[in-house]
Amino acid sequence: MADSPRPAVFLDRDGVLNQVFVRAGVTHPPAHVGEFEFLPGVPQAVRRLHAAGFALVVVTNQPDVARGLQTREGVEAIHQRLRDELPMLEVLACYHDNGDDCACRKPRPGMLLEAARRWQIDLRRSFLVGDRWSDVIAGQAAGCRTVLVETPYSGRERCTPEHCVGDLAGAVEWILTVTRGRKEHEAVC
After folding, report:
1. Which of 39, 52, 68, 119 is most buried when burial is the number of CB atoms within 10 A of its CB?
2. pLDDT per residue over 29-48, tens digit each?
3. Residue range(s) defining the domain that contains residue 153
């Protein structure tokens, strides 16, 4: 007998789980595992989701590999640290650039759909937490509820998330409130 589909929380990586670096007004991911640093409260927030029974899947665009600014091995070293320190079911990355027209690069939902097939995830009972408009669009295209971690670079005007927060801890609080059937405080941004 097959396992029943389960809910998940899909998490963007840079800006949601870990620090980003701003250089010349543009955000950049950590260049190597030595630069990788969790944002405050992230390990605790992730563990709360895991304890609540959610499958946890990281879905991240990493175009610096296609641009020749990062190696796939460098990105995978960061992902190994994520898996070592947090209860992640899987870490999925798109290594393509904007012009590659791939199905996995957010705002397309390819990574979410692949994880749902692979791990029997019920997308209608799942959430996506991201810090950019493209995360929100990908989550909605996959049928998930979406939470935007608002930052100066989120592109909030390009999307309509179900809820907006300042950090992952706020997203987790809202997700747990919604799934426990309690009154939703503020269901829109």
Report:
1. 39
2. 999 999 999 999 999 999 99
3. 8-179
